[in-house]
Amino acid sequence: MEELGKDFMVVEPLSDESSNHPDPDERVIRNAELKAKSVADRYPNSLIIGADTIVFLDGVFMGKPSSPDDAEKMLGLLSGRTHQVFTGIAVLNTSSGEIHSGVSKTDVRFKRLSSKVIKAYVASGEPLDKAGSYGIQGDGGAFIQGFSGSYSNVVGLPLELVEELLRKLR
Fold first, then answer.
1. Alpha-carbon distance 84 to 73, whole Å?
2. Which residues have C-beta within 8 Å of that of residue 31, sequence separation ≥ 6?
3. What is the model's pLDDT at position 10?
4. What pLDDT shows up at residue 77?
5. Within the chain, which residues score under 70 in pLDDT?
6. In angstroms, rounded to a whole number, what is the distance separating the alpha carbons of residues 15 and 34?
7. Catalytic residue among 16, 25, 41, 52
8. Domain limits of the chain?
9. What region does 144 belong to: left with phi over 0, alpha with psi -120 to 50, or beta?
10. Is-catalytic flag, 52?
11. Which CATH number fits domain 24-168: 2.60.40.2550, 3.50.50.60, 3.90.950.10, 1.20.1600.10?
12. What is the pLDDT, as a whole number, of residue 12?
């Protein structure tokens, strides 16, 4: 949001990622909307942005890992393959109740990773709070062979989509 020149504050949503819709687009939009709406009562006359990111590979949804072993498993599945990162964004105007939502999708190609590299990365702690168990903006960026789509989407907040949705509320 700083890159967009916007004043903001980060608020923990009162809702978790509870949608289990089988379509990744629908899942992340519903979760983003739930997150935005969960804090709306506390912030009247505000614009609230809810976001939800998942990694998707061969019909499998990968959120944040539940454990270091889970992170190793996810990274092993991503190794040498292309996956998709979906981020749903919901922008809610609490004054009017108007909400606009959208999805950003990025294809990410991973290099082949050895089990030794995966274990060392997981031991660093970096992947333990990241969807898909990696951070492209950190040491996990070394695993990326290439991508197609929005880089900021993979970091976690697709700035192009956020700007587009904010414009709709003006």
1. 17
2. 15, 17, 18, 19, 50, 52, 88
3. 74
4. 97
5. 1-6, 8-9, 15-17
6. 6
7. 52
8. 24-168
9. beta
10. yes
11. 3.90.950.10
12. 81
